[in-house]
Amino acid sequence: MTTLIGALLVAVAVVIFVLQPVVKGIQASMGRTDDELTDTEARKRVALLALRDVEYDYLAGKLDDADYHSLKAELTAEALAALRADEEARARVSGTAFPGDEELEAEIARVREGLRAGVVCVVCGFENETGSRFCSSCGQKLGPPATNTARQHA
Amino acid sequence: MTVLGEFALWLALPLAIWGGVLGFVGGRTQRGELILSAERSVYGIFFLLLLASAGVVAAFLGDKFQYWYVASYSNRELETFYKVAGLWAGQRGSLLFWALLLSFFASVCVWLNRKKNREFMPYVVGVLQAITVFFVVVLLFAKVNPFERLPFTPANGQGLNPQLQNYWMTIHPPTLYLGFTSFTIPFAFAIAALLNGRLDARWIVLTRRWTLLSWLFLSVGIVLGMRWAYEELGWGGYWFWDPVENASLLPWLTATAFLHSIQIQEHRGMLKVWNMSLVVLTFLLTVFATFLTRSGLIESVHSFAENTRIAIIFLAFLGSVTAFALVLVLYRLPSLRSENRIESFFSREAAFLFNNLILLGAAFTVMWGTLFPLISEAVTGEKVSVGPPFFNRVNIPIGLALLALAGIGPVIAWRRASRRNLKKNFFWPALVGLGVGAILWAIGARHPMALLTWALGAFVLTIVGVEFWKGTRARARIEGEGYAPAFYHLVTRNRRRWGGYIVHVGIVVIFMGLAGAAYNQDVRKFMEPGDTVQVRSPFGEQYTLTYQGISSSVGRGQRNLLWQAVALVDVAVDGKAAGTLTTEKRQYVTSQQLMTEVGIRSTPWEDLYVILSAVDNVEGVLRNDPGAQAVTLQVLIKPLVGWIWYGGLVLVFGSLIALWPSVERNRPAEQETTDVPAVVSA
Fold first, then answer.
1. Distance from CA of B54 to the nearest CA of A (A)
2. Do B115 and A10 make contact, defined as CB atoms within 8 angstroms?
3. CA B574 to CA B581: how far, in whole Å?
4. Fewest C-beta in 10 Å: which of A59, B151, B569, B619?
5. Please, are residues B334 and B315 in contact by the beta-carbon 8 Å criterion?
6. Residue of B nearest to A12 (CA)
7. Cβ within 8 Å, pair A30-B421
8. B624 dihedral zone (left: phi>0; alpha: psi -120 to 50; beta)
9. How high is the ipTM of this complex?
10. A131-145, B162-176, B297-311 — most confident range
11. Which residues have a Cβ under 8 Å from the Cβ of A63 and sit 6 or more positions away?
12. CB contact under 8 A, B11 and A17
């Protein structure tokens, strides 16, 4: 008898628990949360991660200068493309204006130029690529990266 | 309680069907109330299966021998500890246990994602519940119901196989099952991605922690199984390429491949179809392993075969999952195109790809060897087993290639490595490897495979060591920190990478331990009390073993033991006394066979392993007759065997570092990008 009552209680409890949302129309959460990435965000993140890897490999002494510069230039271009796609997507969502092609082109050109020009370390004289926050040779903190300011205009 | 458990199992079937259908329909129609109901059914199933499992355990604890399962795997004399473990001692309980663990992980997954990843969750729930339906159907309708009653109630049960009465045995199967079942979650996400069309790396990012957790459980389960075989089976080894051992190794191999190849998809947007295939294959292999272990398809020390109907149902399930996944992949093929291609054979992508091909090759050969008896029986009518020599010959070179890649992969550059890059990173490690090889050769190690393993091991360890050193140094310079905090921050800022390196170290240590087997010493001697046997270890120690005699105790009946004969062996190392080892023969009520308990003396470098091979005059020994004490002892020296267990611990440590929730996750997205070079970060 107790078993029967137990079984009945279990069955009723489970059925009520499972059917309640359908009967009462309780909705599951359907929206996206802030910490979820969109497709373009994910792609951007991948591109930035790749850049971080290259930076790390270089600092750790696994890449020599020539490899580093060519890889970095390539990855920077990809990362910019990803950034652009992401901003485009954001602009679509929020309905705000999106920086035009010309502006982006100009920005990429600025970055490229910066890469070629480099930043000379005041302590050891090592020629770092633009955007480095620290000297790759001696670790000296470098001035504010030129491209940071460049992007703020964009 | 047991009746209630049976009722709960029946109730689970309609509930799982409900949840499965609503999951798919809710996902398709995006109706929140259906999705919520489906998600609640996951918790409901967990509750019901928990009740069902409690019912089985209650039947074991209450000696309810009217149940076939309890009568077959327990008896009154069995220790309480093993009665609880009765839940996974046989086919029927294991299947229920599998379903219980699956529903547990499903509940955790639904709970963690109750507010996020909502476009995946309905399908994830649908897939998980569909798999649950399969297992509940098997339990109820494939003649494997653990609640099946006998027409009469036996006075006592048949008892548990004595080999399973070992503490490793109580934790080894659950650990493996945790690994098998938790891999269902990445599989469910992969299928959900195919269904909802979000085929970027997101499903991989969402499940990589699950994948790693599952991999960790599988690894630990396998190592525990080796440990159990080593201590309990009494033949001096830890791996016999037994079908069930192989069955647990197969998903481990493909899961390892998957863990590596998802990094290429994350970093380079490549290998999407490949990753889908690997996740499906690994899931299929976990189910296959469960099926192989518990179907009796291939005779093995583990397979306690019961019926063949279950074989057909399992094969049908494996077939339909394969077909379903294949159709989905083909349907989504246009969205699964690679975003990049491999630029050079000398790149990290290529190293990962080789690693994958090799792991898959290993999986294929193990599969082939395992199924060979079946294939040969089908073709020639004769069951031909391939033994350990086949597996060793094929898998040792494969293992060595993997070992080399474990060193090459972490340091070779992404995209393409220049000749200078290769020279810069590999010159010194290669030199250290060669040096270690040369030194070992000089002191007399001549076994080619073992020598190669140790040389490659030294190569990999040097590379990992240098990686840690370079990383720490770079960080110390950049951030102006001391070396200790720099090292700490280095690891904590990228746990996956550095945890992965530590896992590599664990694997290297395990491999080095396995290679020690090339120098096993094995002496067998017929001995009277007072006789000695001498064995020289490859490390130069001279072991002198003096047989003291054997004494028996009869009819204690406790723990199902009929009698037990204990031989005492004094051990001296280089002439100095080093304690006494015991080795036993035991006769259990529940088994015809005599069981052997071995004596092991472990040091970090080698184990002394003593087996009581045979008792000359059992009758005399049982009477404790002083004139009938002759025995045959087998004495083994097993160099480096302990390294397998130490390596296993390192592997767990590394995996835990990689699994530990990172700080990064809780940071807002904006801040996250400050890690990357400033060129594109502002």
1. 14
2. no
3. 17
4. B151
5. no
6. B11
7. no
8. left
9. 0.77
10. B162-176
11. A54, A57, A71, B413, B421
12. no
Continuous segment of H or E residues that includes residue B607: strand B606-615
Closest CA to B266 of B353, B339, B192, B356: B339
Nearest-CA distance from B20 to chain A in Å? 13
As a whole number of angstroms, the distance between CA A37 and CA B200 comes to 11
Specify the amino acid at residue B389: P
B214 pLDDT band, cuts 50/70/90, is: very high
The answer to whether the beta carbons of residues B257 and B186 sit under 8 Å apart is no
CB-defined contacts A:B, below 8 A? 193
Distances A34 to A50, B116, B214, B470 between C-alpha atoms, Å: 24, 9, 28, 36
- B33/A18 CB distance under 8 A: no
Q: Of B268, B307, B14, which is closest to residue B143 (Cα–Cα)?
A: B307
- Contact residues on chain B for A7, CB-CB shorter than 8 A: 3-4, 7
The pLDDT, as a whole number, for residue B666 is 41
Per the CB < 8 Å rule, is A18 touching B40? yes
Q: What is the pLDDT of residues B503-531, one digit of tens each?
A: 999 999 999 999 998 999 999 999 999 99
Could you count the other beta carbons within 10 Å of the beta carbon of residue B575?
8
pLDDT value at B604 more than 70:
yes
For B254-304, the pLDDT digits (tens) are: 999 999 998 888 777 788 888 999 999 999 999 988 887 766 565 544 444
Token code pair at residue B338: 């690679």
Distance CA A87, CA B157 (A): 70
The answer to whether A95 contacts chain B (CB < 8 Å) is: no
Buried b (16+ CB within 10 A) or exposed e, B12-30: bbebbbbbbbbbbebbeee
Cβ of residue B422 closer than 8 Å to a chain A Cβ:
no
> What domains can you pick out in chain B, each with its CATH number?
1-160 (no CATH), 167-337+349-406 (no CATH), 519-643 (2.60.98)
Task: Report the mean per-residue pLDDT for chain A.
Answer: 71
Nearest-10 crossing angle of helices B348-380, B272-295: 40
Say how far apart CA B522 and CA B542 lie, in whole Å. 14
